[in-house]
Amino acid sequence: MSSVLIKNESRLGLKLVAPAVGIIGLLVIYPILFNLYLSFFDVQLNGNKTFVGLDNYTQLLGNPRYYHSVGVSVIYLIGTVIGTTVLGLAAAILMNQTFRFRNLARGLILLPYFAPVISVVFGWQFIFDPVNGIYNHVVVDVLNLTNERENLIGNPDSALFVVILFDIWKHFPIAYLLFLAKLQSVPKDLYEAAAIDGQNPWGRFWHVTLPELKFVIATVVLLRVIWNLNRFEDVYLLAPNVETLPIFTYYQAFAGIVDQGAAAAISVIQLLVLVGLIWLYVRKVLKW
Amino acid sequence: MMNKRTPLQSVILYTLVLALVIFCVFPFLQILSTSLKHPIDWGNPSLIPRILHLDAYKELLGLMPAKEIDVPASIQRLLDNPALSAEKKQMLLAKFSSGGDVFPFGRYMLNTFVISFITGICSTFLASLAAYAIARLRFPAQSLMANGVLFVYMVGGVLLMVPLYQMSVNVGLASSAGGTIFSLFLIYLIQTLPVAMYMLGNYFRTIPFSLEEAAMMDGCSRVEAFWRIIMPLSKPMLFTVFIYCFVIAWNEYLFASVFLKQYQDFHTLPLALQTLFTSKNAIWDRIMAASMLTLLPVIICFMLANRHLSGGLTDGGVKG
Questions:
Q1: Pfam families, per this entry (chain A) (predicted)?
Q2: Strand A49-51 and strand A41-43: pairing?
Q3: Position A82 in a domain
Q4: Domain of A249, in residue numbers
Q5: Measured between beta carbons, which residues in chain A are less than 8 angstroms from residue B247?
Q6: Residue B97 lies in a domain
């Protein structure tokens, strides 16, 4: 190719990416830097700010509520990451079998993932409703496990587990899709060879399926951690009393005594963790 | 080949599949069932309503006849007084038919539809240009941009809510309804652009380059080749990406709540439903009917786009 053509091509390329990159630069990259700047100020909702140096950070690190929300986030992350990965894998293996109505079943189990959070949270709230919900009906009236109807979502401690279950329900389909795509590409003769070697189904799973899926599992786990670290709506809309880090940040920034500078400081710390995780993902998973 | 399943294995398989499907679908059935139940029926654990009760839907869709207003006897006597002008009577009546009870569902749905539709169109268009360039052309900083898209997509909205809000305050956009909606549109654009670029980039790479080459030999310029060859070939994927962006905007709550809180007329459905739920006149059948109606467009979109969506999301495995 002549140098004129190369020049033309690169000029066209830059022209085509310019609008998208411009918007992303203005509304993602710049805000990240602006956020860092804001974290050194006392910021009001109306935009007034006064420089306070590192005060936001020192106050934050001395705030027990911050550590509490870090703790809640960690439990939430462990529960949801393990839950989605295991259920996603199990569902993928199940849906990889041949059976009647398989396409229908494959479509139906994707529903939770695509449904608007705002709609499905009400369904879940009704299920756990202390007066009308099916959960209390089964636990109290049918199984007689306890005598009292409990408000699981009203109590932050038990609500955390409802939120974890909800998140698994909502997000295992994406893990399932990734696993299924990989399972379908595992060569059949590997299983046949293992069967000839005398492996039972469990052995075939352990010696063939798992090693083949190793990279996808790592991808799913890391992506779940990254996504759930930022997860806001699913938690807040189902149980606003479960204070994971994003919820805590939201309360700091927009509710009660507004302290946007502190919220900016939390975001900066969280972003550093996130960048580490993304780096891990790009280095270890994408280039494995 | 694998040995055939024994009857027992078949039973286990179908049981597990059924259990999984029920687990996934049950909350949806619960929403549908409650939306159709009469309030006296809520405690009934069965999913099938004893009496079909469509009032909640009728009310939301504005099909209810105007409610009979309960007026105390003393006021009723006043109203019956022919000396009172019609205007005064209206004012008196208005006091008793509390306006807080009206939930303009249609308006919220229209708001949400308009902003989601515009977001979907703009995002798909801008992303197709950028994705084509990144997938096909050589230019400076190309690989940086290809990787940058990934990074940007993983920075969640929560991390950006404070700076974005402060930016719109500083620029003055947050002080008017129009400016607020424009800010929200821009935010939805950046929430959808990276994933749209990613999905389209992957798709463009699967189209053989020889097609463009042939077009260019026939005298098409690069831009013409993109417009006449690549875009028509990508129609199904463009549609899928549009649907995906549309649904992201349709479902978004966080930024809508931050920006639109004070502009009640411009609330989107997620925000309106949450407000309805936390308000005192939250009634399960109404909430559930509203949820059902919010859900429906998404399920329709999903059925339209399902074929390409699953593949588009998993190729490379980014979205979570």
A1: BPD_transp_1
A2: antiparallel
A3: yes
A4: 63-286
A5: 114, 116
A6: no
The helices-and-strands tally (H runs, E runs) of chain A is 15, 2
> Could you tell me the CATH number of the domain that includes residue A279?
1.10.3720.10
Does position B101 have pLDDT exceeding 80, yes or no?
no
Domain that holds residue B214: 104-314
* Domain-embedded: residue A33: no
In a domain, B147, yes or no: yes
In sequence order, the 6+-apart residues with CB closer than 8 A to the CB of A117 are A170, A233, A234, A237, B251, B253, B270
Q: How far is B111 from chain A (nearest CA, A)?
A: 16
Number of domains chain A is built from: 1
Residues of chain A neighbouring B302 (CB-CB closer than 8 A): 110-111, 114
Secondary structure of A183-198 in HEC code, one letter for each residue: HCCCCHHHHHHHHHCC
Yes or no, beta carbons of A13 and B318 under 8 Å apart: no
User: For the segment B153-207, what is each residue's pLDDT rounded down to a tens digit?
Assistant: 888 788 999 999 999 999 988 888 899 999 999 999 999 999 899 889 888 988 8
Which DSSP helix (H) or strand (E) runs through A42? strand A41-43
Contact residues on chain A for B43, CB-CB shorter than 8 A: 131-132
A16 occurs within a structural domain: no
Q: Considering the domain boundaries, does residue A31 fall inside one?
A: no
**Number of domains chain B is built from:** 2
Q: Summarize pLDDT for B17-51 with one digit per residue, the tens.
A: 999 999 999 999 999 998 888 888 787 777 888 88
How does pLDDT run across A75-124, given as a tens digit for each residue?
A: 999 999 999 999 999 999 999 988 888 888 988 898 998 889 999 999 99
Specify the pLDDT at position B115.
95
Residues B266-290 pLDDT 10s: 999 999 998 888 876 668 888 899 9
The per-residue pLDDT for range B58-81, each reduced to its tens digit, is 888 877 665 555 566 666 666 677
Measured between alpha carbons, how far is B166 from A116 in angstroms, rounded to an integer? 28
Any domain includes B76: no
B293 and B179 part of one domain: yes
The CATH number covering residue B143 comes to 1.10.3720.10
Residue A104, pLDDT score: 87
Task: Name the A residues in 179-208 with CB < 8 Å from any B CB.
Answer: 181, 191-192, 195
Encoded amino acid at B12, one letter: I
Does residue B24 sit in the same domain as residue B155? no
